User: Fold this.
Amino acid sequence: MGAVDALRELLAQHALYSLGILLLLGFLIGKIVNRIKLPEITGYIISGLLVGDSFLGLIPHHMGEGLGLVTEVALGMIAITIGGEFYWVKLRRMGSAIVIVTVVQLFAAFVLVSGVLVLLGMPAPFALLLGAIASATAPAATVAIVQSLRARGQFIDYLYGVVALDDAGAVILFGVVFAVASSILGDVGAAAGAAGAAAAHGGGALSIVLHSFAEVGFSLVLGAVTGLLIHLLARKRTNSNEVLITTLGMLFLSTALAISFNLSPLLTNMAAGAVIINISPDNHRIFRILKPLTPPIYALFFVIAGTELRPEVFVDPHILMLGGAYIIARAIGKYSGVWAGCRIAGTTPAIRNYLGICMLPQAGVAIGLVLLIEASPAMAALPMEYQPMISTMVNIILLSVFVNELIGPPLSRMAIIRGNEMREEH
Assistant:
């Protein structure tokens, strides 16, 4: 262990040591897993798991702020990339199909997960909360795989559309369910405190719902303003370096503002990307200029995500039972919901059969929502007999993230290749 301790001491001196090790190790393991037909991001996650606290413990805890900055930048770039696919010409061609598919799969996952957990003995309010969290899908893996495959086409348009709308829908659904669950638990007044001091004087459940809608609305407004400013700064500039500098500057500012005002940086930057692409067709160049920066940032993002995974939750039989039920029910709900939505919308068989598989990855949004529950005054005010249930919920989500972040990307890659009717050699 002498060499490991020496390396740990070196990494503790500066965040750049950690970032360098993470980037190189992620690259090497990514190439290894790619040889066995797994996506490189699976290798990135595995490398992060190896150097995280669960195994070698090479990344010191006090480096979290520097690593968190990389995560925020990566999420901003992922979100603006998704938003850039919301080109009105394509959306008009697809019509209401994306909305139908998104809504059906959201509620299918919510209902199935909630129902299964209730049948297994979990109190209904907590089961409903986990069902709402189950509706969220992680966009990062999807975007990274699509870009690595250089995939384009109708399947990708549907995929980006559903993933983007899914985040907004999941936030709204969670807000409504949180209010209902808090009411059932008999502490509406404390629940209202999470939405602001004014809500404490009455109308608790309604305040939580309105707060969720306001979060989505203000996030979209901030994103629209950001997209407009990026367009104004870039439209008369022919120098690619100047466009890159101004775009990144606005991207960093919008992400920081969203975080500072408790808005959604994902929704903010998705809205910015959508505004940029729809103001002028010439703005395609902005996304082309950003593209060369994405490989190293995405690599770091997934390696850092791997350091946060906790395989020790596998040893608790109770968590294994409930977590396994959550994972299976969510997978069935997501796939069957997309399939049913596609049937209603009249999509092609390829989209109907494979799009649901791409909905399996789950990460940041789910963790954020369950931690919000854990930190909520409403939950802190519950009787002591309920407190272990909150810890159980956190562990179920961590188990889901661990499993879905490892098996989700390979399945998504297969589904994108087949659904987009690409050849396997890609």
